[in-house]
């Protein structure tokens, strides 16, 4: 071995370092002002990210509230539609029971039909559906639908003289107005 090999620790190229030797890089030293500037920039980024997070969270909460309100409204509309479709069945039961011939009034099957009608009416009551009072009441175009007027009657106010089809409310909302005959009284 040559003396050169011994001087370089057995490394033939004196410009390359071995794994045992530490690689030294010059450490950049930043001034206090530069560090403060970097800190301020990072704080701005953090504030921007936090603001975006808060906005996104608020948007999500608003979406959640809107979705729940829309779902509740849709459920209410569906419920109303179903109840309105049951009303003609109730009308048919009432008409059928009002027109039962005398010779059939004691029949057992008629008691069953009466029970079905009562169950339907109980169901409507449980669902907060109520009949709109009509006959003898002052005419109210918000809840009564006048299809006939008695021109021979005289008086100061319009009064419902006959009900052709019962009207119903769901809570305070009219779901079917009463179809009536109106006259003066």
Highest-level CATH class of the largest domain? Alpha Beta
Query: Main sheet, how many strands, which sense, barrel?
Result: 3 strands, antiparallel
> Which CATH architecture of the largest domain is right?
Alpha-Beta Complex
So how many helices? 3
Distance between the termini: 135 Å
Average pLDDT for all residues? 87
User: Proportion of β residues?
Assistant: 15-25%
3D architecture notes:
By secondary structure, the chain is of the alpha+beta class. It has two domains: 32-127, Hemagglutinin Ectodomain, Chain B (Alpha-Beta Complex); 130-185, Head domain of nucleotide exchange factor GrpE (Nucleotide Exchange Factor Grpe, Chain A, domain 2, Roll), CATH 2.30.22. The protein has three helices and six strands. It has helices at residues 3-7, 32-98, 108-126; strands at 129-131, 144-150, 158-165, 168-170, 173-176, 178-184. The strands form two sheets. A three-stranded antiparallel β-sheet has the order 1-4-5. The chain has a three-stranded mixed β-sheet with strand order 2-6-3, with no helix packed on it. Strand 4 (168-170) and strand 5 form a beta hairpin. Helix 2 (32-98) runs antiparallel to helix 3 (108-126). The chain is elongated, with a radius of gyration of 44 Å.
